[in-house]
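Sequence, structure tokens passed on for absentees:
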Amino acid sequence: MGFVILEVHGGRKIVLPYSKARRLLSVPVEPQDDKDSAPVHFEFRVLGPLEVLADGKRIVVGGARQRTVLAMLLLESDRVVSVDRLIHAVWNGNPPATSRTQIAICVASLRKMLLCAGGTDDIIVTAAPCGFPKLCRCS
């Protein structure tokens, strides 16, 4: 079994098995509130630089923090990711006092980005306890 190295930001890298990386390459998302519109197909490319495409069009993902949070959610697709894990991934053990607020802002910005691209606001859901985010495959 091979491995893939995902470069997140600042030169930091995440190593994951090829089978898991391959599974993360494309996540279809269908709008659920508008029955007349065609489903939007999101592609999350994690091999090489992190990229997001909606129906083949590139979407600009914010700064390094947003890319790191999105990469962590993609690596744990359909699973809850704790805020503490996101904080550790972004600041590598040296977070500022406002880190939880900054993570919440990143998640809200990612939701807005995906919503503006034609997705639904439940692509990234917040689960109890403590509002842990997770990236969902909506079908």
Observations:
- Residues 24-35 have pLDDT under 50 and may be disordered.
- The two ends are 30 Å apart (CA to CA).
- The chain is about 30% helix and 25% strand.
